[in-house]
């Protein structure tokens, strides 16, 4: 089994502008359910003039949420003038925060790389994942996050923008909660995604968390009293269930810092599960790195999107 990493240390680090979360968003009502502890502001609005070049705040009507739901989309500079040309899409799931804003370093980095000719033009979509949802549907139906992203947002993006609307043109990634969410969604819906990048995402064995004696504690207060729901949301169980659509058909990249013990243990466990099932993948432990998205991006910024680009090249949707 080979699992070679495309990452390498870089001696020259570019400066990436980091924005603070607090000044970007105006105050708006938030859904805060004491029953499940998750918080989401479905249509969080940014202040004017603070979005990086090429990044747009949009909303769409969600039947599952019963209201408008916000998302961010980066469109490459060629998009408007490129006629009928279609573009691959990277779905970027943010970490554990109250809104879909966790800093736009990745979108800025992709824009710079496209302008410099380092990467081909691509679209990035960042769904609104709220806080502590882990991109799952709550059992009580009050936060249908998975349904909104998979059943509604992706079709909306394909209808509204010139995307390559098939598995070979879609990538999914995320850091921390976003890495955990993107991994589970890729395992559950392998027919939708060709390339996965789990970036320091805690990937637990969700089915082990079921405890009917602790209905008020997470994850029981979010996934509910039915153990089957825990199994259905377990990335390890989903990997085994969908192995024929994953092995040899999905490119998987996983990395985590060695000083990130809260996430590294489960990342190693999932890495071993992939090895046991002979799923070829890329695995990297970053020496002396803690749970720090900005520092990780700075270290690997020259090649940050190389993995997805290589996936898209192998899938045949780009030719470089």
In short:
The protein is an alpha/beta fold and 320 residues long.
Task: Please tell me about this protein's structure.
With 320 residues, the chain is α/β, with parallel strands linked by helices. The protein has one domain: Alpha/Beta hydrolase fold, catalytic domain (Rossmann fold). It contains ten helices and ten strands. The strands form two sheets. It has an eight-stranded mixed sheet with strand order 3-4-6-5-7-8-9-10, sandwiched between helices. It has a two-stranded antiparallel ribbon with strand order 1-2. The longest helix is centred in the middle third of the chain and has 16 residues. The relative contact order is 0.16. The N terminus is likely disordered.
Q: Tell me what portion of residues adopts beta-strand conformation.
A: 15-25%
Chain-averaged pLDDT: 88
- Which residue ranges are poorly predicted, with pLDDT under 50 across at least 5 consecutive positions? 1-35
- The Rg value, from CA coordinates, equals 19 Å
The CATH architecture: 3-Layer(aba) Sandwich
Tell me about the largest β-sheet: 8 strands, mixed
**Any idea of the CATH class?**
Alpha Beta
* Number of E strands: 10
The overall number of domains is: 1
| The CATH topology | Rossmann fold
Query: What would you call the shape?
Result: globular
Measured distance between first and last alpha carbons: 27 Å
Describe the strand arrangement of the main beta sheet, using strand numbers: 3-4-6-5-7-8-9-10
Which class of secondary structure composition applies to the elements?
alpha/beta
Alpha plus pi helix count: 10
């Amino acid at each position: 089994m080979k699992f070679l990493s495309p990452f390498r240390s870089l001696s020259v680090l570019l400066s990436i502008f980091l924005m603070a979360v607090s000044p970007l968003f105006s105050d708006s009502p938030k859904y805060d359910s004491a029953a499940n502890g998750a918080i989401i502001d479905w249509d969080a609005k940014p202040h004017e003039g603070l979005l990086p070049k090429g990044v747009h705040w949009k909303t769409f009507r969600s039947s599952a949420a019963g209201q408008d739901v916000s998302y961010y989309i980066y469109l490459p500079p060629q998009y408007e003038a490129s006629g009928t040309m279609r573009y691959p899409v990277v779905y970027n799931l943010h970490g554990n925060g109250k809104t879909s804003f966790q800093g736009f370093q990745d979108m800025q980095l992709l824009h710079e790389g496209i302008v410099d000719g380092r990467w081909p033009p691509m679209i990035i979509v960042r769904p609104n994942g709220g806080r502590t949802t882990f991109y799952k549907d709550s059992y009580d139906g009050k936060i249908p996050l998975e349904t909104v992203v998979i059943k509604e947002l992706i079709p909306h993006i394909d209808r509204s923008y010139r995307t390559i609307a098939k598995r070979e043109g879609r990538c999914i990634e995320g850091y921390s909660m976003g890495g955990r969410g993107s991994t589970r969604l890729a395992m559950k819906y392998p027919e939708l995604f060709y390339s996965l990048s789990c970036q320091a995402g805690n990937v637990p064995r969700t089915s082990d968390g079921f405890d009917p004696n602790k209905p008020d504690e997470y994850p029981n207060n979010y996934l509910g009293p039915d153990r089957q729901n825990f199994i259905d949301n377990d990335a390890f169980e989903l990997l085994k269930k969908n192995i024929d659509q994953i092995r040899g058909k999905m490119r998987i990249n996983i990395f985590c810092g060695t000083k990130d013990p809260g996430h590294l243990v489960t990342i190693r466990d999932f890495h071993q599960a992939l090895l046991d099932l002979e799923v070829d993948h890329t695995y990297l432990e970053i020496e002396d790195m803690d749970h720090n998205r900005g520092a990780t991006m700075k270290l690997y910024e020259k090649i940050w999107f190389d993995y997805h680009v290589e996936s898209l090249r192998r899938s045949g949707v780009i030719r470089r």
